[in-house]
Specification:
3 helices, 145 residues, 24% helix
Length: 145
């Protein structure tokens, strides 16, 4: 099971934690957040540093992946770029709620988030880092990024 750091610790992180626990493919080893002190917790997971500390935190905790759980698109994009520059070997898994319905020939990029009730019909392109909230749907032959 991959060990995962989560960048963020607020509302989007809470939803992300819930999905990761339900799916069970990753073990969360800590949260990265510059706005809260090390040691504070969200849902029992500690803040272990900031995104600037990602390489050191990953090495210390044995993390091989990171998910950016930040709702603001521009901030999320910037944080992904910072993490990639600081720790290029970390994997960016997608987090997909078990109730999401994903059709045939759908391409899901790395670091994608899909909440409960999402419907993605066939032949859809979901670009890296996309955030698709509860009960949203994408119809056939479309793309989102």
């Amino acid at each position: 099971m991959q060990k995962l750091l989560i960048a963020g610790s607020s509302g989007q992180a809470k939803i992300t934690i819930d999905i990761i626990e339900r799916v069970g493919t990753h073990r969360i080893v800590g949260l990265l957040d510059a706005s809260r002190p090390v040691g504070e917790e969200t849902f029992g997971y500690p803040i272990v540093g900031t995104t600037q500390d990602v390489a050191a935190c990953a090495a210390k905790l044995g993390a091989d992946s990171v998910f950016v759980a930040i709702g603001d698109n521009s901030v999320r994009k910037r944080v992904v770029e910072e993490i990639r520059a600081a720790a290029p070997d970390l994997d960016f898994p997608s987090v997909i709620h078990p109730s999401a319905c994903i059709g045939r020939d759908v391409n899901v990029g790395p670091g994608v988030f899909m909440s409960a009730g999402v419907i993605i019909n066939s032949a859809v392109e979901v670009a890296e880092g996309s955030l698709i909230s509860a009960n949203a749907s994408l119809d056939h032959d479309s793309s989102i990024g």
